[in-house]
Amino acid sequence: MNGILIIDKPGGMTSHDVVQYFRRVFDTSKVGHLGTLDPMATGVLPLCIGKATRVGQFFATSPKEYIGEIRFGFSTTTYDREGVPTGIEKPFVNSLEELLAAMTDLTGALDQTPPAYSAKKIGGVRSHDSARRGEVVENAPVRVEVTVFELTNFAPPPSSTIGFRVVCGGGTYVRSLAHDLGERLGCGAHLTSLRRLRSGDFGIEQAVPMEAAGKADVIPLDNLFQQWPSLVVSGQEERRVRQGNPISAGEGALEGEGFARILNKQGEFLAVAALERGWARPRVVLTSTTSVNAGGASIDTAENGN
């Protein structure tokens, strides 16, 4: 079983919980996810299965699209509803115009500080592990890109909640956006719900509920990266590819830069290759007598904020 499975993650589970579930379902240890979702969050969670775990690095994981809800009045330790309030509740007294202006200020290229309760590592230790031990956590700001942060619903006091939509790059913490919005408005805020609608090339329309997903829902390895050019090989060239050696890309469309799929005449996906100055250089060989990975380590998980 080799391919990609797009899961509609339920709330209350970690992304690793979902990985463990499908390791049991498919009876394999080779399952990893692309882009972490917090336990509270739901929505698109792509899983790499079998040999697809070795090509996870080549999938686009941005942009990401979310919808959710923010409650004003107080911030929390985790920046979401699962945390402990950090102070007394303050009324939301801002106008709609002030709210929209604050959301606009949080759009574009931002230096964002990840939450203390996050998977970011400081000195090799995950931030949330230190925070749970009561240690002071000081995550360094990270440059992120927020393309869209728009209002979809506004419930004024006493509810003081908004619905929103966010489109952002990888590494953006939507929880931090909620927290920072509350700071700008002077009343505090925290995230109360979050649903991911898109992660790179994968959308909610492709996602399958976790408990309903099975082998028939896995997108086969041979169907992946079809937007790339393909190079068909046989004989000596196929043997060279299987051993991780470069081959001539030939003339025409493969003379440029980028990536290509290398297939044999039976249509088997042999390798992902980088195109460089007329050569196809295997980055990851998927079918070989000896394991070859010229481009880097296999993918188990990819950490991204939410």
Q: How would a crystallographer describe the biggest sheet?
A: 12 strands, mixed
N→C terminal distance: 29 Å
| β-sheet strand percentage | 25-35%
Structural class: alpha+beta
Low-confidence stretches: 289-304
Radius of gyration: 22 Å
Q: What is the total tally of β strands? A: 19
Mean pLDDT: 88
Query: What series of H and E elements makes up the topology?
Result: EHEEEHEEEHEEHEEEEEHEEEEE
What count of helical segments does DSSP give?
Answer: 5
CATH superfamily of the domain at 64-199: Pseudouridine synthase
Helix content: 10-25%
**What is the 3D form?**
elongated
CATH topology type of the domain at 64-199 = Pseudouridine synthase
- Please give the CATH architecture of the domain at 64-199: 2-Layer Sandwich
- Class of the domain at 64-199, according to the CATH hierarchy? Alpha Beta
Characterization of the model:
- Strand 10 and strand 11 form a beta hairpin.
- The two termini are 29 Å apart.
- 36% of the residues are buried.
- Helix content is 15%, strand content 35%.
- Strands 1, 2, 3, 4, 5, 8, 9, 10, 11, 12, 13 and 19 form a 12-stranded mixed β-sheet that branches. Strands 14-16-17-18-15 form a 5-stranded mixed β-sheet. Strands 6-7 form a two-stranded antiparallel ribbon.
- The chain has 5 helices and 19 strands.
- Among the domains are: 136 residues, Pseudouridine synthase; 63 residues, PUA domain (Archaeosine Trna-guanine Transglycosylase, Chain: A, domain 4, Roll), CATH 2.30.130.10.
- The C terminus is likely disordered.
- It is an alpha+beta fold and 306 residues long.
